[in-house]
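Notebook, bench 3.
Goal today: get a predicted structure for Cytochrome c1 from Candidatus Nucleicultrix amoebiphila FS5 so we can plan the truncation constructs. The sequence was checked against the plasmid map this morning, with no discrepancies at the termini. Length recorded as 250 residues. Pasting the sequence as submitted so the record is complete.
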Amino acid sequence: MKLRAVFLTLLFCGISSFVRGEGHTPPPKNDWSFKSPIGTFDRAALQRGFQVYKEVCSTCHSMNLVSYRNLRDLGFSHGEVKAIAKQYQVPTLNDEGESITRPAESQDAFVSPYPNEKAARAANNGAYPPDLSLIVKARNGGADYVKALLVGFKEPPAGVTLNPGMHYNVYFQGNQIAMAEPLKEGLVTYTDGTKATVEQMADDVVTFLSWAAEPEMEARKRLGIKVLIYLSVFSVMMYFALRRVRRHIK
């Protein structure tokens, strides 16, 4: 019995440590424009966020579930989307079955920075950069965690030794992450003139990634509001109808 009690205690402590996520700081909460029941995506932030992804994140991370035509939802015109797509080359085959490339078109998915996983790992010291299409939904803490991760790179505290090729991050599990700090002050030049601080770039790219994870969110919320209005009106009508029926029954 004593051994069983000791075993259960150790097991509970281990599970508790895992659940608490010891070794990292919980991400702070942010006031995202899209988080409220009637919240929407800021179109200017979405376009800036795409610019950050395009110029910074896309050098390592793919977004295989997003097509260039989806950028119309961000406020880009049809011509702008075609111009963006043409900047990339898509592998294909010619009539003789030989491997060639062609300019990407609106219907193509975002072009991956690497041809395969082995190439991605070879370029990143063995680490495989995750696809970012659903990253906000795939991580506990969602948008708050992803933003915290982007701004959480610090010098390791005294007494902490990093493994080779690793970087210290306050919010990452275990505090050691293979990804180097991606954002630096003024790293991009926003086309709308917004100052590109690390905080601003993190806000914008996380807004873009949140849209990529849930592109139907705004339509779903609009439908939900219509349903609530309909149900409210229907409930009032049913209330007065039942009152009238009961009056006749009496």
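The radius of gyration is 25 Å. The mean pLDDT is 90.
Flagging this for group meeting.
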